[in-house]
Amino acid sequence: MQDSFDLSIIVFLLLAVFVGWRLYSVLGTRPDRDNQAPASNLASVAKLVSPAPPRDATPEPVVEEAPEADPARWKGIAELGTPLADSLDALVVADRSFEVRQFITGARGAYEAIVVAFAAGDRNTLRELLSRDVFESFVAAIADREKRGETVETTFVGIEKADVHHVQLRGNAAQITVQFLSKLITATRDAAGVITDGAADKVVDVTDIWTFARELNSRDPVWKLIATEAAH
Predict the structure, then answer these.
(1) Parallel, antiparallel, or unpaired for β 204-215 and 195-198?
(2) How many domains does the chain have?
(3) Any idea which of 12-16, 130-134, 160-164, 191-195 has the lowest mean pLDDT?
(4) Which of 29, 97, 177, 229 counts the highest number of beta carbons within 10 A?
């Protein structure tokens, strides 16, 4: 009985060794990668990244097309096909970072800041927002007012409209003219405190046409006021 048991164990051990050797011969072997050309592996990676065209196909040249213009790009600002829309198109070509709605928002903020700074005689604020010629003109008017002992009280109520009227490119300089319709409470007092112009309790409509300019290759993003006129 003991002999037959030992014989069966030996048979199973031999069978296990045989099966293990067959499994190793199928799963345990691998190609000799040291003898393969490196180009074959690089080619496989290249196909995953950029599939190659069939050998019998001729690669077509890559042509970059300009992005199609959005027909609604100037909606509410300019009618397509008008000189104003064409000028805005030219400005975008010259300055890819230009965004007209962002400009209008900035122009509204600049208009309010300049009106309030002029009334208060705030030369530092005006210096940052005005061209040299306009700054000198504003400062001269402030100085004359101060000599007469006059003060200006201005309450900025708000801007009703800010419409782009004209866009012009002159070399590397861009100019944009905006018409503002604003509401103000303003009064000028003499040295004795008597109101000589305006009213301290009356809201008035004011229409101004201002032109802003900026050198497109400048690192300074500020559009500065270069001209002002009253609407007729």
Answers:
(1) unpaired
(2) 1
(3) 12-16
(4) 177
